[in-house]
Design brief:
Blueprint: E1 5-6, H1 13-24, H2 30-39, E2 46-50, E3 53-66, E4 72-83, H3 92-106, E5 111-115, E6 128-129, E7 132-139, E8 156-160, H4 166-176, H5 188-194, E9 209-215, E10 218-228, E11 239-248, H6 251-262, E12 267-276, H7 281-284, E13 291-297, E14 299-303, H8 306-312, E15 319-326, E16 335-342, E17 345-350, E18 357-360, H9 361-367, H10 374-379, E19 384-385, H11 390-398
Parallel strand pairs: 4-5, 11-12, 15-18
Antiparallel strand pairs: 1-2, 2-3, 3-4, 5-14, 6-14, 7-12, 7-13, 8-9, 9-10, 10-11, 15-16, 16-17, 18-19
Helix pairs in contact: 2-5
């Protein structure tokens, strides 16, 4: 069967949200539903119809995202992907994904990105795991820092109401957003979600709390967190703290904010999620074994137009390779591309030359933000190298520090 696909208007939101609720098995609170609706770009929604039934849905956020080198480019932020359980394995998702990628290309966005609810799904549409994240729990009583921890006597901490300090958070984040690949600019809807603090937003934790690190010139960092009060049967405090976000403009502010989070009274455990794999806290802890971390995939990236995407980012080392790209979803990408790049810039153009390596487009997506595993994919037989050393040369050039992290699900 074929399913007609089109965008919806605001009046059709209840049906769109209903497909997502059914597909994800969740029931949002009215306020959560309204926030999502307010953030939705209705001209970038897509719905596959089975008669009058919405069988599958998806949408896109128009993001401005940082790529290696600090440049910001327009990126199609894929979101709200769902298919009714009654319509699985009928080609609904495939039709939506293909149409969506074509639309993203027409918008002039050479890169698409998403968070995968299930990591099995999106590789077949050319998305590659482009960033990873750490989640960890720290025993407060074993969280001493190394002796040479950065400090600045001009810094001071100030406890603030999160709602009242929103402008400070926004300014600080805007100042640091270009430092790490994958970070994207936040509009008012994103900040509304971050600072939402109704009972249903707390997930069993306490109200949202915040602390600023500042000096006489202004704010240099902030931490957002929630706590959960608890006591054991002997009256000993055993509270927990969940870090929502910690951003800092410099190492001294970063260390001071972490120290404040870890030193909170009546807290014994601190947990943090969506932290970069090269998080500075790992180096700050005197006993790094106390940071019990778990790894997970984070951002997935798809090159919608290979030449434009590869030209838009910076490279860590010179490279000159002919890459044969395999792409059966976006056929305009399939073919041979010569990438010539160094630390000053890059050029990517179609050629007829013999390839140095052959790669599926998802492999380039996985390497795009600077954290790819091209060497591991070669070892696994997922890439074909025709010129010895070509994969190593490309992997070296595309690697980047700091490692990528989007930092917030969209």
């Amino acid at each position: 069967m074929t399913y007609p696909i089109r965008p919806i208007d605001e009046s059709e939101w209840p049906g769109f949200a209903g497909v997502l609720a059914e597909g994800f098995g969740w029931t949002p609170q009215p306020a959560q539903d309204e926030r999502f609706k307010a953030a939705t770009e209705f001209d970038r929604t897509l719905v596959a119809f089975d008669g009058t039934t919405m069988a599958g849905v998806t949408s896109v956020f128009s993001l401005t995202m940082t790529v290696p080198g600090g440049r910001q480019i327009p990126v199609g932020g894929v979101t709200a992907v769902g298919v009714l359980p009654s319509h699985r394995r009928r080609g609904v998702l495939s039709a939506l994904m293909r149409r969506q990628l074509s639309d993203i290309r027409e918008r002039g966005e050479s890169v698409a990105a998403l968070y995968a609810s299930e990591s099995l799904i999106y590789g077949r549409f050319g998305y590659g795991r482009a960033a990873s994240e750490l989640s960890y729990r720290i025993d407060k009583h074993r969280s001493a820092f190394v002796r040479d921890t950065p400090a600045d006597p001009a810094l001071r901490l100030r406890v603030v109401s999160p709602a009242a300090a929103r402008a400070d958070f926004e300014r600080l984040f805007a100042a640091v957003v270009t430092r790490r690949p994958g970070r994207y600019e936040r509009d008012q809807h994103v900040w509304d979600g971050i600072l939402a603090d109704e009972e249903h937003d707390r997930d069993g934790w306490g109200s949202l709390r915040a602390v600023l690190a500042e000096d006489d010139r202004g704010v240099r960092g902030y931490a957002l967190f929630r706590t959960k009060s608890a006591w054991d049967r002997d009256g000993v405090p055993s509270g927990e703290l969940r870090l929502i976000e910690l951003e800092a403009a410099d190492p001294a502010a970063y260390a001071l904010l972490w120290r404040n989070v870890l030193d909170r009274d009546l807290i014994t455990k601190v947990e943090a999620h969506a932290r970069p794999v090269d998080d500075g806290l790992v180096a700050l802890l005197a006993d790094s074994r106390q940071l019990r971390a778990t790894w997970s995939d984070e951002l997935w990236v798809r090159l919608v137009e290979v030449d434009k995407a590869l030209t838009a980012r910076a490279y860590a080392a010179p490279v000159d390779v002919v890459v044969e790209v395999e792409d059966d979803v976006c056929p305009w990408n399939a073919g041979r591309w010569r990438l010539t790049a160094d630390t000053s810039g890059a050029e990517c153009k179609a050629v007829d030359d013999e390839p140095d390596l052959t790669v599926p487009v998802a492999a380039l997506g996985s390497a795009y933000m600077g954290d790819g595993l091209l060497g591991a994919q070669l070892d696994a037989g997922l890439l074909r190298e025709h010129a010895p050393g070509a994969v190593r040369a490309l992997a070296t050039a595309m690697a980047w520090s700091p490692k990528p992290l989007a930092g917030l699900v969209f």
